[in-house]
Amino acid sequence: MDGILSEKFQREGYLVFDDFVSSRQCQALIDRALEITEAHSQEGPISMFTTAEDRRATDEYFMKSGRDISLFFEEEAVDKGGLLGSTSEACNKIGHALHDLDPVFSEFSRASSVREVSRKIGLVDPVLIQSMFIFKNPKVGGRVDWHQDACFLYTDPITVKGFWFALEDADRENGCLWVAPGGHRQGLKRRFIRGEDADTHFVSLDSAPIEVDDPIPLEVPAGTLVVFDGCLPHFSSANRSQRRRCAYTLHMIERSADYPADNWLRPTLDRPWRGF
Length: 276
Known about the structure:
The chain is α+β, with helices and mostly antiparallel strands. 20% of the residues lie in helices and 27% in strands.
């Protein structure tokens, strides 16, 4: 790792790279995501995204999405009659294998510039295991509560790193990311695991709640890359503005780390994880 970047990443748990993605690349990813959503039949399953544990449901559609391209919708954009508006206007995110199964996202995810950043933050032989296109649509874009990515993508030792690409301007009004600098040093608080019957639940690793001291908003323009440690607490508020806030996220782990079989996300024989 580069000395200055290494110290900052270890101290604060995240890095911000300005002007990392060109406006042309941002638009290309947005256009491709819109193509995917509009090709999705509204007659198919409507799986809603929520971070509220009392309303969280794990279904077969969600479990298969780990190695597929699946759509998840905003709770406020769905009623008993179906979607309120177009597919793209109601969509929360597309997940979770765009980086492997879609040529446009795969090429972007495996760019030499992305590989170089993974090296700078200490990954030696990374594999790309999860990706999401997040719409954060106007008025209905839902809140994502404080969480740690390693909760959902656990390895021993913990090696997961998140890459968050702002494809549109992000600010407090349209639900930008908030982070707790240095919060990764408190360690992982819990794990999200898959049971024997494909049910999922959380297991506590630390009875103390996530500590969020002096959180800061990452108000960044389109084209910015934010990289964060898997234990860094982060969240985003609901988007009640008139402006969308698209982003693309990518997660990597070290190939040599132990990946427990009770993680919800698993590779398959026909779709194994790949590196760069």
